[in-house]
Amino acid sequence: YEAHQKADEQETVDHRERAIKQQQNKFILSAILSLPLLWTMVGHFSFTSFLYVPQFLMNPWVQLVLATPVQFIIGKQFYVGAYKALRNGSANMDVLVVMGTSAAYFYSVYQAIVTAGSHHAPHLYFETSAVLITLILLGKLFEAKAKGRSSEA
């Protein structure tokens, strides 16, 4: 009986480690895609104006390509969680994340389309949606690692 219990415990530990590794991979990919977007934002601040921002990163379509996987592939878990919460008649953090990041993302898509071909530089917020998702994933990763350590104790 005890050997069976140990096997169950090991299976739980293995599952938790796989989940942490998956969260870590999502965070890393999200960070890789979000950092160039964040770089475009820091060039606007007076205390970081000395930083060179490559012109191609200022292209709305490049920003769209970088932000879309973060928003809908990496951030899918938030959409699924929000859908389930709303279906059950409640709202949770996933609903807030989806509403906030989607507003920034879709406003930026709208601005990119409306200003396409003009010499007017649109105000885009692709970096906002991508960086928010990335930081929330980092928080979830820290939480998963802390839970893993506390259950090992």
Account of the 3D structure:
The chain has 153 residues and is mostly helical. The chain has one domain (2-152). The chain is 76% helix and 0% strand. The chain contains five helices and no strands. The protein has helices at residues 2-42, 60-74, 76-87, 93-114, 126-152. α2 packs antiparallel against α4 and α2 (60-74) packs parallel to α5. The mean pLDDT is 90. This is Heavy metal translocating P-type ATPase. It comes from Lysinibacillus xylanilyticus. The chain crosses the membrane at residues 27-52, 64-83, 95-113, 125-142. Keywords: Membrane, Metal-binding, Transmembrane, Transmembrane helix.
Secondary-structure topology with pairs:
Layout: H1 2-42, H2 60-74, H3 76-87, H4 93-114, H5 126-152
Helix pairs in contact: 1-2, 1-5, 2-4, 2-5, 3-4, 4-5
